[in-house]
Design brief:
Blueprint (H helix, E strand, L loop, with lengths): L8 H63 L6 H11 L5 E3 L4 E7 L4 E9 L8 E10 L8
Antiparallel strand pairs: 1-2, 2-3, 3-4
């Protein structure tokens, strides 16, 4: 017995409806994914901008420290040089005289901080300092938007 199956106009309508529903669902998923990517990209841009601002401030502080080192007298001995440097340090910097290291922290409003340290060379040597630490720190309790 040979049976022939025939598809009527209703089967084509159901197939078309299934295709339209599937394409609509894929479109909605694509829009949701694109929105998520946009939010993530904006967040990454804000973080990168914040870190770049911290880095610029750290470099400016390093330049101010270098200027203080350049102004310190080098011909009166190492102790006088270190004392002059300690007196001329920019605000927020501390000198560990034993280790000849200057430390400071650059902070941002979003909970990120840049911990910085520079080693001082002996009086009269060039370069006068060298980066020791340049570490980004983030607070654990930063807002969930960040």
């Amino acid at each position: 017995m040979n049976r022939k199956y025939r598809f009527g106009p209703g089967a084509a309508l159901i197939t078309l409806l299934a295709v339209v529903l599937a394409m609509s669902a894929l479109g909605v998923l694509t829009l949701m994914s694109a929105r998520g990517d946009e939010v993530l990209s904006e967040r990454a841009a804000r973080v990168a901008e914040s870190v770049a601002r911290l880095d610029v401030r750290a470099e400016e502080s390093l330049a101010a420290l270098d200027a203080a080192l350049a102004a310190a007298p080098t011909d009166q001995g190492e102790a006088a040089y270190r004392a002059a440097v300690a007196a001329a340090l920019p605000e927020g910097m501390t000198l560990d005289a034993e280790a000849s290291v200057v430390r400071w922290v650059e902070s941002a409003e979003d909970g990120r901080s840049l911990v910085c340290a520079a080693a001082l060379a002996p009086a009269g040597e060039f370069p006068r300092l060298d980066w020791l630490e340049h570490r980004l720190v983030t607070e654990l309790n930063a807002s969930p938007e960040e």
